Amino acid sequence: MLSLPAAATPTFERAWALNGAGWLALRQGQHTAGQAINEESLAIGRTLHDRLLVSRGLINLGAGALQHGEYDPARERFEEALAIARGNQDPMGEGMALRNLGVLAVEIGDFAAGEAYGREVLALGRWLRSAWMTTSALTRLGQAAFGQGKVARARSLLEESLIAARACGDRASIAGTLDALGNVTLTQGDYQFACALLRESLQLRYDLGEWPNIPTSVESLARANAMGGRPEKAVRQLGAAAGLREALQLPQTPRQRAANARSSRWRRAGSATGRSPRSW
């Protein structure tokens, strides 16, 4: 549609189509193209003084910055989008900005802030009756609880999130929740169940073409194999994930680096003691 001659005029409709195309590009790992598309959408929105376009453009640009480890620019864009949405009485935009601020907080290891944002998003999601927003909030709350060592609480929240995601058929949300839940159940020693959850998450992400999230799923499976006494397979999977990250120019977040560092310690300890990590 954007390639049609009549679509070249910088109108609201062109900016809105660009916003959708830019978001899809980011979800597929096309960072450079996605950022260019989103910048054009935002520029049109600012020219038209359209708060809806500006807030959504900022959210997309912030998501792209977050993917590539640019945490301060991402936060600035999400916070500006949040202020615009609140000033424009746009609860959906408010929820989207808060959701992304929660993702950022969790990924940099600020789990208390991630929990606070998650609670705000959950309240908005339930008020709006938005299944996507409610599911996203529950997942973030589960990840924040897990990061704070509240494993049982994390599992309960993530199981609730998975039920909600499956009920509304949102495969992207299902995949994200499965990955988070798989990592929680892994620490509880439920190796077989964790592997089943993580494999389903990886398959969904592959089917959806969500390339930026595939390295995360492969790393989760590597941790499962490290803890399950299969270090050779874990090493191969970590190598494959590293290759994907390099190709997509996607750095690990602090949370992901910490999780992978723990699995490396488990592998080294297992080699030194000859004991299965399942018993630790």
Instruction: Categorize the overall geometry.
Output: globular
Tell how many strands the DSSP assignment holds. Answer: 0
State the end-to-end CA separation.
56 Å
Gyration radius, rounded: 20 Å
**Overall residue-averaged pLDDT value:** 92
Discrete helix count: 13
Fraction of residues in helices? over 70%
The ordered string of helix (H) and strand (E) elements is HHHHHHHHHHHHH
Q: Uncertain spans, ≥5 residues at pLDDT below 50?
A: 269-280
Structural class based on helices, strands and sheet pairing: mainly alpha
Q: Summarize the main sheet.
A: none
User: Approximately how much beta-strand content do the residues carry?
Assistant: under 5%
Draw up the topology in text.
Layout: H1 12-27, H2 31-48, H3 51-67, H4 71-87, H5 91-107, H6 111-128, H7 131-147, H8 151-168, H9 171-187, H10 191-208, H11 214-227, H12 231-248, H13 254-273
Helix pairs in contact: 1-2, 1-3, 2-3, 3-4, 3-5, 4-5, 5-6, 5-7, 6-7, 7-8, 7-9, 8-9, 9-10, 9-11, 10-11, 11-12, 11-13
